Amino acid sequence: MYFKGFGTDTASVDLARFEQLVGELRERAWQQPEQRTERKDLHGAIGVAEVWLSQRGWRMSVEYRSPPDEGVITVKAYDTACLRKHDVGLEPGG
């Protein structure tokens, strides 16, 4: 599964919206086994944030990026059994 969300004139995509999405997923029993990773921009603001979640044989990456004009949230989900079958490693940040 792959989803990419962009902001609109009436609803921006920002770090708060990313945190809200991750909170909603955790309320639906997605576990967060690792800490959130972040990279800051030249001004010290969070430019990239990523969370890895796991649930019932699935692994999901939720990432926020703040380009100069508008933020974007990307969600990717992976079936871990399928990855193992094809000897594909899935590490955070990969």
Description of the structure:
The chain has 94 residues and is of the alpha+beta class. Helices cover 20% and strands 37% of the residues. Strands 1-5-4-3-2 form a 5-stranded antiparallel beta sheet. The chain is elongated, with a radius of gyration of 14 Å. 11% of the residues are buried. The model has no long low-confidence stretch (mean pLDDT 88).
Cα shape? elongated
Into which percentage range does the β-strand content fall?
35-45%
Number of helices: 2
Intertermini distance? 16 Å
Order of strands across the main sheet? 1-5-4-3-2
Q: Regions with pLDDT < 50 over 5+ consecutive residues?
A: none
| Largest sheet properties | 5 strands, antiparallel
DSSP summary, beta strand count = 5
Coarse structural class: alpha+beta
- Share of helical residues: 10-25%
**Arithmetic mean of pLDDT:** 88
What Rg is obtained from the alpha carbons, in whole angstroms?
A: 14 Å
Q: H/E series, N to C?
A: EHEEEEH
SSE topology sketch:
Blueprint: E1 2-6, H1 15-27, E2 37-40, E3 46-55, E4 58-65, E5 72-79, H2 80-85
Antiparallel strand pairs: 1-5, 2-3, 3-4, 4-5
Summarize the structure.
The protein has 94 residues and is an alpha+beta fold. Helix content is 20%, strand content 37%.
Key descriptive features of the protein:
94 residues; 2 helices
